[in-house]
Amino acid sequence: MIATSPSAKPAATTFESLNPASGAVVGTFPIDGPDEVAAAVGRAREAARWWSALDFAERRRRLAGFRRVVAQRIDELSELVHRENGKPDADAFLETMLALHHVAWAARNARRVLSPRRVRPGMLAANHAAQVVYDPLGVIGVIGPWNYPVYTPMGSIGYALAAGNAVVFKPSEHTPAVGVWLAERFAEAIPEQPLVQVVTGLGATGEALCRSGVDKLAFTGSARTGRRVMAACADNLTPVLLELGGKDAMIVDDDADVEAAAQAAVWGAIQNAGQTCIAVERVYATDAVYDRFTARVVELAGRVRSGDGAQADIGPITMPGQIDVIRSHLDDAFARGARALVGGPEAVHPPYVDPVVLVDVPADALIMRDETFGPALPVVRVRDADEAVRLANDTRYGLASAVFGKRRATDIARRLRAGMTSINAMITFAAVPGLPFGGVGDSGFGRIHGDEGLREFSRTKAITRQRYALPVELLSFERPARMVDLLKKVTRLVHGRG
Ligand code: NAD
Question: Are 153 and 142 contacting, i.e. CB atoms less than 8 angstroms apart?
Fold first, then answer.
């Protein structure tokens, strides 16, 4: 197996990635097993040694080279994402633009975030200097999903590289061509070592990567697979970063700009055909705005067109199996008395699903509890913002959320149990590279992006250095007994008051 060219890998078995709109074959790729994965990790170890020995400026310069080659061929990448994932070209472009924005930030800020940091030694070690240093971990395994095949894995890859690591990337079996394309651009921009290698295959290839002895495994995908990843990583005590699914809520409060909220809800729920981890999957609108809000949502969602052509707002459902999940959520909602104000059961016409806006959905319906990952939006009437917060937090997930309102908006945002919240806008946090991205509960743990995202791919190490010796040494068998007596007095004085 070589680093980036799928055709050159000797493999007994292969799989095809298909264009979800037409069913045409986009590419044929080897199913890499434990041996190929181990070989890639072995090469990555070499690459990591070389890369970590470069200084921040050198790494930044080379990552700028990667951004340059991607930017020069951005239309080619957008077309490939469109073909393999199904999303419109413009959406494919936007996710790549965002990914480049993040790589630039990570490379620019790595020195600030990861340089040694002095720490006050405190009273007990006043004669020492103390510092924290951040070392690269070594080789990072990255397993990615298909819904944002550029932006999502690059959130781990870009930050891992900026922190001085090498990467072995296992793209989704639905978007391997995009993964290989990215690795080829890394090889072009940074030819010295195979800094980013791709292994291709199905779940078993991902599992082999989990068990390969990488220094950290960054997984983005469903909560169900996340549990398996964590179990597989447990054997070697390989640390994991889990970016999982969500059931994100939007709250529309009494004093919200209803027009802006409706625009955001429709776009947030339906863009990329709802196949977004941070999509709006539920809306809670207060009594004061519910009617106006719902009417406008219905108007806007009714205009959205699915298809493969240039006029389409949303593409097909990328993963055929997801259509069954969407259908089952809709069927369950209708069986429980939900009404569709836009779309209905006929909205599901594989490979497409048209927008569906639902009302009167009971709180225990599947579509209110499990990730739908389709262009369906349940809108719920609530008495007030307090009820909205209670219902929004009644979920095992906790990825993102949105609040539309004025007076109480920040307070509501603070009370939402989620990793990220945007106020009076949709998913803005994803475009702010300085902000950490990640969830709580079944949405995972650990953070990509921001200072936290750089430290996530670093080994934190504490160092003290004695600056001068004290006349008596506390941590010694030779210490005089009176020293402990003195320390007891000091301890009572310092901690025993108040
Ligand atoms: P998935 O869990 O089915 O697959 C993700 C990846 O895991 C794929 O590459 C797959 O081959 C691999 N895999 C499957 N079984 C494995 C195993 N046993 N061991 C190791 N790897 C294995 O998810 P998906 O359908 O590709 O992606 C959609 C999911 O991803 C949704 O739940 C979505 O919300 C989530 N997601 C989360 C984020 C985030 O940042 N939190 C971003 C995008 C997508």
Answer: yes
